[in-house]
Amino acid sequence: MHIRALHPSDYALLSPVLDEWWGGRSVGGLLPRLFFEHFGSTSCVLEEEGAIKGFLVGFVSQSLPTVAYIHLVGVSPDKRKQGYGGLLYERFFDLAAVHGCSEVHCITSPVNAGSIAFHTQLGFEIVDTGDAVDGIPVKLDYAGPGQHRVLFRKQL
């Protein structure tokens, strides 16, 4: 197992499997080529025997230079529950610190209980926005009308 920086050439390897990794959900549009070309120094892939088995795309905020943001993380379905996601997050925390960041932000859907549990286990706190869905704090309409999101923050 090896974790390395994301390369522009990884787009051709990851883009065809994204929807499959998300159980057929259409997520390819969330990861256009520009992320591979412009955020490689703060993003990474986890390889095993020469094949990509996980990735994390993140960056340092242009508006808030002490904040790093995790945009999208994926682990191959055959490698889940083996700690790969945690390894990718730990690598990103290190990269964010090197870039002078003191906190990391990310989001998930309020229906994604597994993601909420994963993030809280990694030490993220849920940001209380004053709104909630089914008792879970959310930012209403964060990703568009009716697309509420749970906001996370972790101090480094």
In short:
The chain is α+β, with helices and mostly antiparallel strands and 156 residues long. It has five helices and nine strands, in the order βαααβββαβαββββ.
Structure overview:
The chain is an alpha+beta fold. It is built from five helices and nine strands. Strands 1-2-3-4-5-9-6 form a seven-stranded mixed beta sheet, covered by helices on one side. Strands 7-8 form a two-stranded antiparallel ribbon. Strand 4 (67-75), helix 4 and strand 5 (103-108) form a beta-alpha-beta unit.
- The neighbouring-strand order within the major sheet is 1-2-3-4-5-9-6
H/E element sequence? EHHHEEEHEHEEEE
DSSP helix fraction: 25-40%
Number of strands: 9
Distance between the termini: 25 Å
Poorly predicted sequence stretches spanning 5 or more consecutive residues:
none
Tell me the number of helical segments per DSSP (H or I, 4 or more residues long): 5
Q: Report the major sheet.
A: 7 strands, mixed
| Average pLDDT for all residues | 95
